[in-house]
Amino acid sequence: MLFAVQMTVNLPPDLDADLRAATLTAEKEYAQELQQSGEWLHLWRCAGQYANLSVFEVTGNDRLNDILWGLPLFPYMDITVTPLARHPSAIR
Ligand SMILES: O=C(O)C[C@H]1C=CC(=O)O1
């Protein structure tokens, strides 16, 4: 199943600098592992925002939920999930 996910990051300005750095490092590793495994198909920066638009291909809602809850930045994110269906005019 395909899902579009928008993640907006709201890191508290007073977050401890070491915790911030460790969380960002862990987030990058986590995101890259899921891209390498093929579940995180697209990861795009929303221009001008601390946000991304991602596409996941996963077995279902529960797997996506597990992935999102596992994001190291999850406590600092607003997340919107849109299930995707094939568009009748799509050619690929
Ligand atoms: O920067 C972001 O958009 C948040 C997050 C998502 C993947 C990643 O590496 O960081």
Automatic annotation (TrEMBL):
It catalyses: (S)-muconolactone = (4,5-dihydro-5-oxofuran-2-yl)-acetate. Pathway: Aromatic compound metabolism; beta-ketoadipate pathway; 5-oxo-4,5-dihydro-2-furylacetate from catechol: step 3/3. Gene3D superfamilies: Dimeric alpha+beta barrel (3.30.70.1060). It holds the Pfam family MIase. Residues 1-89 form the Muconolactone isomerase domain. Keywords: Aromatic hydrocarbons catabolism, Isomerase. SUPFAM superfamilies: Dimeric alpha+beta barrel (SSF54909). GO terms for biological process: beta-ketoadipate pathway. It is an enzyme of class 5 (isomerase). The keyword Protease does not apply. Its EC number is 5.3.3.4. It comes from the Bacteria. One of its GO terms (molecular function) is muconolactone delta-isomerase activity. Homodecamer. Belongs to the muconolactone Delta-isomerase family. This is Muconolactone Delta-isomerase. The gene is catC.
